[in-house]
Amino acid sequence: MVLILSLKNDFTTNLVIDWLCFYAKKHIRINDSFTDVAFKSQKNYLKITNDSFLDIDHISSFWFRKGTPFINTEDSEIIKDENKINQDYLSFLLQQKKSIGNTGGASKINKLIALNIAASFDLRIPKTFLVDNKNDLADLVINNSGKRYIIKAKTNISMYQFDDSSGMIFTNEVKKDDLEKFPEKFGFTLVQELIVKKFEIRTFFLKNKTWSMAIFSQNDSQTENDYRRYNNDKPNRNTLFQLPTDIEEKLRLVMSKLNLDTGSIDWIYADDNQFYFLEINPIGQFTNLSFTCNYNLEKEVAKLL
């Protein structure tokens, strides 16, 4: 049986399940989180509801797509620590199965650490700064020989849902005229040198295999700094792309160092004809890449499971 942890509205999970049904593979999908871990009759069980348990031995493969495996709501630190040991043990047991994704914290990758590791394997990265005041930001924007800079989120979460609306944090260029909008002091902010690109690349990584798509976002002023500012009237041209062998091998080393077996990676192919590593989303949206390039990635995931 295939066990899937996801979220209720995740469309990609639905597509993979369609393929599991095609292969007549038994599966169970749990949304948001597991209820708890249980140990009885000398066996390990996953508690799904108050009266429903799943024998870990009956699970053949596990896909950690989205969600939080366990939510530890105990007030007592002693009991919370005890529960965490039990839950970590279950996560360990699930990772011993044929698995995709990592419940042990690798799903929350620190962008700054990922950039550092990428550079250690000789991948080019944009010059990166953490800035917390207007003076230092102005020094970068004004006094650096015409170089340009962008601000982006440090977290992998860019979409925020509110009661009556939603919002997204985009990558934005900081210009001299923008400086007056900043307070004298602010929270540490990720600032990077703007890499002038020929096009962007989105790569989906799965068990050491890669599938990539070139996104010609530079040809549109609306999308040139962030292709997620979609121009629905005149969409960016997207096409299949193959990363060079040496870049793929370095990416494998980065993913291994980060203990990731899947994820979506963003690159820039710059006007200096070099590849620049930007970031990794360890959950990784891949449906658009799959549909646009006819990669059928949902089938690839189902076959692995």
Automatic annotation (TrEMBL):
SUPFAM superfamilies membership: Glutathione synthetase ATP-binding domain-like
InterPro entries referenced in this protein's UniProt entry, alphabetically: GRASP_w_spasm
Record's protein name: Grasp-with-spasm system ATP-grasp peptide maturase
